[in-house]
Amino acid sequence: MLFLTIEFSNLATEWMEGENVADSDKSRDVPLDSSVPTASLESILRTEELQRRPSRAPDYEKENQALVKLVSALADSPATIFRTLAETIQDITQCDSAGLSLLTRDGKTPHVDGERFYWPAIAGMWKPHVGGGTPRNFGPCGDVLDQNRTLLFTHFERRYPYLMPVDPAAEECLLVPFYVNGKAVGTIWGIMHSDRRKFDAEDDRVMASLGKFASSAYQALAHIEDLRIQVAEREKAEAEVRELARGLKAKVRRLVEANVVGIVTWNLEGAITGANDAFLRMVQYDRDDLASGRACWTDLTPAEWRGHAERAVADLKATGIFKPFEKEYFRKDGSRVPVLLGGALLEGDGNEGIAFVLDLSEQKRAERALRRSEAFLAEGQHLGQIGSFCWNVATDEITWSAELYRIYELEMGLPVTLELIRSRVHPEDVSLIEKMKMVDPAREGGRDFEWQYRLLMPDHSVKYMHAVAHATRNQDGQLEYIASVQDVTARRRAEEARDKARSELAHVARVMSLGTLTASIAHELNQPLSGIVVNASTCVRMLASDPPNVDGARETARRTIRDANRASEVITRLRALYSKKDPLPESVDLNEAAREVIALSLSELQRGRVALRLELADDLPLIRGDRVQLQQVILNLVLNASDAMRGVNDRPRQLVIRTEREDDRARLTVQDVGVGIEPHSAEKLFEPFYTTKSSGMGIGLSVSRSIVESHHGRLWASRNDGPGASFSLSIPRSPEGFPHSDAGRQGLGTVHVGTAHPRVPESLSPSENKMPCEFQLGMTKPIKAAANQPIENEP
Amino acid sequence: MVREQPVMSMRPLVSVIDDDESVRESLPDLVREFGYSVQAFSSAEAFLASDYVDQTRCLILDVSMPPGMSGPDLQRELARRGREIPIIFITAQGDEAIRPRLLKGGAIECLMKPFSDTALLEALHAALTVN
Q: For the whole model, what pTM was predicted?
């Protein structure tokens, strides 16, 4: 059974502090030996006398009053009910001391089968002994419970020596048991310390009545104690929850005050009831705005986001939460801030909630920058007509950029398959990706590629592609190729046009330098013609003389034929020189070419009083090219040299034509002793239309250089140690194939690493069938991926 | 076949000066057929060094004879020496402007190759009638 905590704690204190004769240990120490004679139980009992003694008249009124008072006391101050009860007993029975004994096990906690009685309340003379008690198995209270009836003792200390120190001694003691739920839990008693009065039957009756009350009181107190403990436990639980909440609150507060994210409390009407600084900063409101209610959910939300907000409210009402979503707020100044927010109602069916608000400005900025750079990239691709693609080797997935679709003139977004690609690639060519798949089961390390090919469009037009691919690993570690494909059709056309213009120009130059040769040609033809006229005239006259001079006539006729043949040769040579045939490749001996040129210009040189010296190498390698074009160049140089020396009178006008072998190149030099060239204008000479001659053509050197370069050679000018200049050309011996008409330009696709592609035709027909060149660069060689940079690879 | 004539014959001496061998080969025969005696020289210097300067009644003179003296050079030299011989210039150059210049300079004629035999004959008559 439970016991009143307060009473117990008081008692326990008194017990500990006060003299504690009833202490269980001490009482056991009291020897029950024969030196102290203990009376028998019968000898100290006088219970029967209760009936024999004259009984005083019952005072029912007093008794009722006392009971009423007790009941009130129980209601009003249950904590002291036992004291009140003890006082009541004393008052009604008019005894000297009264009190209760409660059965308890350890002196602290009452138990039904406890080992001790202790006295929680005593009134009267024995009051100081409150907190004391008696053992269960050896004491008056124990006897009462054993016999289960009222007992009257006299001088029980005779039997229970431990009670001796408890004074004053009890002359008589009336003890009455009381019960709870049928079990005896203690006694109430009264004591007379003198024989002033003897207990009687009336006392017995009253005590029994009071015993019943004691029982009720005991139970009531037990209930109160029960409640108290429940309350204490609940309070403890509540305290724990509060503590927990406090701890949690502290943590949440920390989050809110850390201002890493905006936190807002609000209600469903749209008011913002609270916010941390982070939120206020985000929307540029201050705490006053908050307090005054100027900051309102609905005002902060732009019209186009209302729908989202309403959906969020619907979710809140349905589920108690709204999941994070993006929207925008108006700041106080009207500008907008992009945000992410999510939140919950505080109570399932409540009106108030809390939300976090994250400022997305940075993310949006980054997104915009990314989109901008993507737009730049796309625009750049478009401007440069460069498309790109990505090939994941493992999955075989091919992804094209928008520009590549445009270049191929295919609908954007079509899945990229080999069939799709082949539907556009020229039937005679392969695309880069096909090439990559062919050449390298590029499944291993991954080399870099460069490739040129053509597209054949549905309208039969041809596009030229130049592609570069680079091996890389994606973020999953898979091998991927990133390739860039440029539409170089325009450039190719321009180059073709340029080459055509060049050859036109060369032809024009040929024709125009006819002017400078007019004198020579006229001379060349006039000489034999004149000879024909003179000899034929002489022949006629000789035959007409008397007698006819037949021998003379024969001689003149012979001369005539000879002269006619000379004229014919000149015509033939000229015809060959000035025909517009496309150049045919042949083996050219520069020595022979030079000699022919000299023969053609000999009279011009003689007129210019030029002293010619030939130093022609025996071991000069043959070069492959157009003999006529090369002769044109040599003629140009020779005539220029002659012109340069026109004003020279103080020394012989020495013109040297020298050929020599230079490794596997043939070099020809035309050296004069004329006016020479300015130190820094050597290159200017080769510009088109540059001329120092007042009546010169000026095209000669520019065209000459292009002719030499189209033979993979070089043409340059240099000053002599002495007076005059030297013009040299150096042409490599080219073992196979005629050089492309696009050879020599500074561009990709013309460099041969190793042998030329076998599809290059031996003779170049003037079509656009320029076959692509193939080369692979190993991983150690860098690619200059920019389309306009030359690749410095020489065979 | 060139037939040598005695110096004091009635046939006037025409000297042909041209660096072109075929001219020296063919022209003298024609001029001889015209009835003149002819001497041929490959350069102006060769002529001046010869014994025929005083006897020459007419010169058929090439304009350009590099690297030596040109035709006009010889004309000036003869003038300087006070030995004015009538000159018929011949030239293979196509430059038309040269003819009026030479005529202005006192030449009898300037013939552009190829020239006809009659043109030459007329020029010779003109040269040798002026006396």
A: 0.36
